[in-house]
């Protein structure tokens, strides 16, 4: 089957080749944000977020008004990231207390090994500063309470996502394209996306708890097992072997998300918070 013809995709335009590399903007934005947070400087992050939000709303309004479609929406994201990054860079360059005009490139890679030992596994899980702070303060009961409250809130957000994707499944695709095939595919996939979010929200929260407990390795292994050992083969089987196409691929993602959530939930329920608090004291000292 010729998927390009079936889905109504046209030949790549020069714009298509420009959009992809701009994802590298996030590789600059995230480290700068972490640097600023470490310096307890939040003003440029707030200013950048506000300007980026206003830019994003304005450009998407133009995209809808002039019917630029999916490419216009993608370019809106790119321009938004550029505005955010430039705001952070200008602030850092002009403000005396955090001004950065020169740096030693070689020194940037000093002590890289201990940083990577924490950074690599943490790439697959969000950081829960609150749990880490409570454990560092030797308050295991409070850390446990925070974790379970956060997971409960994540469940609520997940169910809201299901309601949203279900209600907008027939209208969402038509915002960006008039191709009936693509609209039908989006209508079919949106409810599956919502059910994925029921598992995705709490499992992401629990992975943050694991990072807050200084156990990012466990979260990384859970992600690897759920998405690559379970989800990826399932997506291939249902999408291609069973001939379900795009919907089959999404079912594979659905299985991966729920497998990840179940494993994360088991790790949360089996956590010895007293032991984690003692270990935190050892790490602090």
UniProtKB/TrEMBL annotation:
<comment type="similarity">
    <text>Belongs to the multi antimicrobial extrusion (MATE) (TC 2.A.66.1) family.</text>
</comment>
<protein>
    <submittedName>
        <fullName>Multidrug and toxin extrusion protein 1</fullName>
    </submittedName>
</protein>
<keyword id="KW-0472">Membrane</keyword>
<feature type="transmembrane region" description="Helical">
    <location>
        <begin position="247"/>
        <end position="269"/>
    </location>
</feature>
<feature type="transmembrane region" description="Helical">
    <location>
        <begin position="72"/>
        <end position="91"/>
    </location>
</feature>
<dbReference type="GO" id="GO:0015297">
    <property type="term" value="F:antiporter activity"/>
</dbReference>
<dbReference type="GO" id="GO:0042910">
    <property type="term" value="F:xenobiotic transmembrane transporter activity"/>
</dbReference>
<feature type="transmembrane region" description="Helical">
    <location>
        <begin position="45"/>
        <end position="66"/>
    </location>
</feature>
<keyword id="KW-1133">Transmembrane helix</keyword>
<dbReference type="InterPro" id="IPR002528">
    <property type="entry name" value="MATE_fam"/>
</dbReference>
<feature type="transmembrane region" description="Helical">
    <location>
        <begin position="17"/>
        <end position="36"/>
    </location>
</feature>
<keyword id="KW-0812">Transmembrane</keyword>
<dbReference type="GO" id="GO:0016020">
    <property type="term" value="C:membrane"/>
</dbReference>
<dbReference type="Pfam" id="PF01554">
    <property type="entry name" value="MatE"/>
</dbReference>
<feature type="transmembrane region" description="Helical">
    <location>
        <begin position="146"/>
        <end position="167"/>
    </location>
</feature>
<feature type="transmembrane region" description="Helical">
    <location>
        <begin position="220"/>
        <end position="241"/>
    </location>
</feature>
<feature type="transmembrane region" description="Helical">
    <location>
        <begin position="182"/>
        <end position="199"/>
    </location>
</feature>
